[in-house]
Design a protein that fits this description.
β1 and β2 form a beta hairpin. The protein is α+β, with helices and mostly antiparallel strands. It has four helices and eight strands, in the order ββββαββαβαβα. It starts with a strand and ends with a helix. Strands 1, 2, 3, 4, 5, 6, 7 and 8 form an eight-stranded mixed β-sheet that branches. The chain has a single domain, classed as Nucleoside Triphosphate Pyrophosphohydrolase (Alpha-Beta Complex), CATH 3.90.79.
């Protein structure tokens, strides 16, 4: 039987872009479903009690990719996402906000990951808009290409 989290999980996520307009994504696997294909996603995570979305996103950047940034430097929300998904045997409803940051050297920061993240995330890499559009791999959020295209126009 599948567990269900009936609360809405609030998250803050960041599109990290380099000078070429590529976005840095992390690759994860579901430890509860080891045969499920890997998926790619933007750094970020759950907004803890007392945190703003910017504060959560900045904290997650530090923990996941070793980037130290003041929350205000993330600026305004550039996109949103409301999804339902299953992970590690639990079904979730999630509402997310996205910020953008230019940075040239993110890296997977294994020391900052909690136990579940360490079981889930195994690498990160840069993706061009064309690679995202043509990829057969699972990439979250589903509308990442549209958000990145919009950002790359500015």
């Amino acid at each position: 039987m599948n567990a269900v989290d009936t609360s809405i999980r609030q998250v803050g996520r960041v599109l990290i872009r380099n000078h070429a307009g590529e976005v840095f994504l992390l690759r994860g696997k579901d430890p509860g479903e080891p045969n499920r294909p890997a998926f790619w996603f933007t750094p970020g995570g759950k907004i803890d009690a007392g945190e703003t979305a910017q504060e959560a996103a900045a904290r997650e950047l530090r923990e996941e990719v070793g980037i130290l940034v003041e929350p205000a430097a993330l600026g305004e929300v550039i996109g949103t996402e409301d999804v339902t998904y299953r992970f590690n045997g639990v079904s979730y409803r999630q509402s997310g906000v996205f910020f953008a940051l230019r940075h040239e050297n993110p890296r997977l920061h294994a020391e900052g990951l909690n136990a579940l993240e360490a079981q889930t995330i195994d690498t990160g890499r840069w993706w061009s808009l064309a690679q995202i559009i043509t990829s057969e791999e699972t990439i979250y959020p589903a509308h990442l290409a549209e958000m990145l295209a919009s950002l790359n126009k500015t």
